[in-house]
Amino acid sequence: MRILPIALSGLIVAAAVSVGNQEPPTIRTDVNLVQLHVRVTDAAGRAVSGLGQSAFHLFVDDAPTEITVFQGEDAPVTAGIVVDNSASMAAKRNDVIAGALAFARASNPKDEMFVVHFSTGVRFGLPEGTRFTGSIAKLETAISTFNLGGTTAFYDALAAASSHFKFAAYPHKVLLTITDGGDNSSQTTLPEAIAGARDAGIVIYPIGLFDENDRDRNPAVLEKIAEQTGGSAFFPEHVYEVTETCVRIARNIREQYVLGFPGATDGRYHRIRLLVSDAGHGPLKAFTRAGYQATGPSGS
Length: 300
Known about the structure:
The protein is an alpha+beta fold. It folds into two domains: 2-72 and 256-293, Immunoglobulin-like (Sandwich), CATH 2.60.40; 78-254, von Willebrand factor, type A domain (Rossmann fold, 3-Layer(aba) Sandwich). It is built from six helices and 15 strands. It has helices at residues 93-106, 136-144, 154-164, 190-199, 219-229, 242-254, and strands at residues 2-5, 33-41, 56-60, 63-65, 69-71, 78-84, 112-118, 122-124, 173-179, 202-208, 232-235, 256-262, 269-276, 285-287, 291-293. It has a five-stranded mixed β-sheet with strand order 8-7-6-9-10, sandwiched between helices. Residues 2-29 have low confidence and may be disordered.
C-alpha cells in the first residue's frame, strides 16, 4: 500500500454549532482562531497520548506564541463519508461498504457522522431531516444505499459535504472519501472544492482504488486535496485492503491533539513550528501543518 502523509495548509475556523442535544466542546468562536491538528510520536514512531498543554511549545514566524485552546487526543469529531457510486465501483461495492463501516466502528463513539453518495449527481445517505448520527446501524443503512451507474462528480460531492459541515457540533471536521476515478462531470472546479473544504477547516483523507488501465485514474488530484486540506492520501494495492486503510485513518484521527491560537489579519502566510517535550518520555516529534494563510483586515 502506498500512503502519502501530508502537512496541513492554512485554515481559519468559525464557531461550532450545536446539533440536537449535543454541546460543542470549548474550542470557540473567534473567527481568526487557527486550529492545529497534531499527532505526536516517540522515537520508535508510536503515537503518544496523555500529554498536557504544557508539553507543547508553539512558534509562529519563529516568535513564541501562546496556545489559547487545547484538547487532548481522542476528542470527538464531525466526520463525513463520501462514497463514489459511479458504474466502475460495482465490483468494489462490498469492500467499500465494509471499509466505511470499519471506519465508523473504529472512531470515537461520540463522533457524529454523515454520508454522501455521488455519481453523476450527489445525494445524502441519511434520511431527510437527519443531519448526523452516531448510530452504526443507521450509518450501515446510509452507506449501503448505492445507486450504481453514471459518471463521477467528485468535486460536487466535496462541495456538498463541505457545506453540510456548517451544522457540525464539533470543531474538528474530517472527510473520508473513497473513489476509483478522476472527476469527469462536476460543476464545481477542483480549486473551488479545495477552497471550500479548507475555509471550513475540514481535513480530507482520500482513498483511491485505482485500476491500472483506468484512463480516469488521477492519484495526483487526491494527493493535492489531501495536501491542501491537511490530510493524507491512501492508495491500497488491493480492494480488500480498504477496511484496514479505513481503520488506520480512524485511529490516526483519534490520536490527534487539537491546539488553537489567534491568527493574524494581515492577509499574509505565517510559518508554524511546534515543539513537544515531556519529562516522562524520550524525544518526541509533533506532526502538524507548516503554516497558515491569514485573513485580510476585513476578514476576507
